[in-house]
Amino acid sequence: MEAGAQREAAQPVLIVQEETPVVGVPAACIEEETAMAPAITMEIEEVAAAEQVVTPWEVSAPDGAIDYDKLVDRFGCQRIDAAIVDRIARLTLCPPHRFLRRGIFFAHRDLNSILDLYEAGKNFYLYTGRGPSSESLHLGHLIPFMFTKYLQDAFKVPLVIQLTDDEKFLWKNLTIAECKRLARENAKDIIACGFDVERTFIFTDLNYVGGAFYENMLEVAKRVTYNNLRGILGITPEDHIGKVSFPPVQAAPSFPSSFPHLFPGNDQLRCLIPCAIDQDPYFRMTRDVAPKIGFQKPSLIESRFFPALQGESTKMSASDPNSAIYVTDSPKQIKAKVNKYAFSGGQASVELHREFGANLDVDVPIKYLNFFLEDDDELDHIKKEYKEGRMLTGDVKQRLIAVLSELVARHQRARAQVTEEMVDAFMAVRPLPNMFG
């Protein structure tokens, strides 16, 4: 499960039609989730000119900018409004995370149900994950973990983190041994985000899958047809069968009985999944199947995408280290990348900029500050001054360089403290007696 930035691997282009039944799928199988809704597979050339594409493996839009309103309507999720943000603050007695305040985590499925449970004094757990395909994480990869840590601290609930090393073996040109190694290396970066070992279980699929977890995978697999997968995930007859078998693996952590060492006898415990919205198709499938196998539907809280340095019309790629800021970058590298590659919404000359100001809608330094600058007042001031031409692009980039350098240096210090023994402790299959409250 890739919980953060856009996937790199290209997949068939899908346009989701939410009302027309899939050929060969009984109408009774189409639930309100539209998880079993169909997709019309089209040629890339035909779609690119007219439609945005969002799947767990591909994110693109004809003009480079994702239309999130259209995406919410297509997927059938709901917007997070000010009332929900205020309610979270009231229930947790914690200031809302900047990702909530600024609409970065902007959509949800059944989040109010989770808040109702919490308000009634009942428990839930968190589930998120990472597909370990690279040695180092970039800042986009950190976003779901930064937000999940806030949720864990604010609600004082347990968390399971799935490292899908099996998925990366199936989708990438990597050996099983390399996938397992990368999973442990990525686990160190995740632990460095500050998770509580008394409330957190990190597992890799290649090490953990079996027993009750595998039983739940089978229950899911038996109720999802090939047509269903073709419709929601773009599986084609040319894909190897490993891609058909993987979706139940990502679904299973949504069900508490997959973790008998954590939640024995508590099969109805609700699950909240923080993730990027490109993961929504997996969990529409999961939510459709859940009541058929006797479980509660998982709830979701979903984020926008984190843009590449070159702007929303491109994507971060491991093959282009200049497309992103990595948690291993030095201050010198961060400065060079921001100054040279961060796409500017400023004007071509100082004179024109003073007259017309910056276009904040396309300016990457402003977008990155929106993610990482904590002070709302300072952010608003920068936006106002920049938009009206009184602040120049160089000024904004300098502030961003300072913010990112501090963030990355702090992460590097925390990462340096993570030992192999700490990874083993987080991954140990053990009860968590103090995981609630």
UniProtKB/TrEMBL annotation:
Entry keyword annotation includes Nucleotide-binding: yes
Cellular location(s): Cytoplasm
One BP annotation, GO: reproductive structure development
Enzyme Commission number, as recorded: 6.1.1.2
One Pfam short name: tRNA-synt_1b
Main enzyme class: ligase
InterPro entries the record matches: aa-tRNA-synth_I_CS, aa-tRNA-synth_Ic, Rossmann-like_a/b/a_fold, Trp-tRNA-ligase
Gene Ontology MF terms in the entry: ATP binding; tryptophan-tRNA ligase activity
Highest taxon listed in the record's lineage: Eukaryota
Keyword terms: Aminoacyl-tRNA synthetase, ATP-binding, Cytoplasm, Ligase, Nucleotide-binding, Protein biosynthesis
GO CC terms in record: cytoplasm
Family the UniProt entry places it in: Belongs to the class-I aminoacyl-tRNA synthetase family.
NCBIfam families from the UniProt entry: trpS (TIGR00233)
The protein's name: Tryptophan--tRNA ligase, cytoplasmic
